[in-house]
Amino acid sequence: MAQVQELKAEAREGRGKGPSYQARQKGLIPAIVYGGKGEPVTVNVDGRTLERHIEKGSFLTTLLMLDVGGRKTRVIPRQLQLDPVSDRPVHVDFMRLVEGAKVRLEIPVHFKGQGESPGLKKGGVLNVVRHEMELICPADKIPNEVLVDVSKLDINESIHISALTLPEGVKPTIRGRDFTVCSIVAPTSVIEEQRAAAAAAAAPAAEAAPAEGAAPAEGAAAPAAGAAAPAAGAKAAPAAPAKK
């Protein structure tokens, strides 16, 4: 489960571009805290401290205990704005997590058991369908990752969401569909060989079947377009006399 990390902040007076610009000039990052039963509160957090939390990875799924002048509030980052040039944080939105709260988060999917997988040992390729999974999580049971064991997976076999055991109270946002998380597919060389074999097997059958609208055999006169075949036993009509 995700561990709560502490982050110190200070109250910020005023809103808008002016106070935010002044905070950044001091090496602080403007932020807002909202949600729960309280009113939105504007704060500043130390820029370097915030960057260290971001560099750890999975910042938007990290539980934080925000300490504003000794008053602590459990929050989770919901939006992080970065400078388009420097790629450094310029603003953060924090959401309060009250008792019993649930949040919708993108949790990373990781895999284990690749060394034991019979399909991978045969040269198969792990096809990852879900690199992340959107889950509804209780605030106290946010998983750091979804770990998928592929140690028994063979070629052309898949793992679906129904095969995974999620923490209690954690549910995928996709309901009513047993979606695929990963599969092991045959290597490209094997697929090409199978296609070539199928094409070779189909070729003799295609040659044996008469082509529709094929030309008549050599020496046979082709019937005139639109001419009807004479009935059996009927005499041919006499030729018309030539005009003088």
Describe what this molecule looks like in 3D.
By secondary structure, this protein is α+β, with helices and mostly antiparallel strands. It is built from four helices and 13 strands. The strands form three sheets. Strands 1-3-2-6-5-4 form a six-stranded mixed beta barrel. The radius of gyration is 36 Å and the shape is elongated.
The percent range for helix content is: 10-25%
Percent of residues in β-strands: 25-35%
**Unreliable segments of 5+ consecutive residues:** 222-237
- Which radius of gyration do the C-alpha atoms yield? 36 Å
Set down the secondary structure blueprint.
Blueprint: E1 5-11, H1 17-25, E2 28-34, E3 41-46, H2 47-55, E4 64-68, E5 71-82, E6 89-96, E7 102-112, H3 118-121, E8 125-128, E9 132-138, E10 146-149, E11 158-160, E12 171-172, E13 180-185, H4 188-208
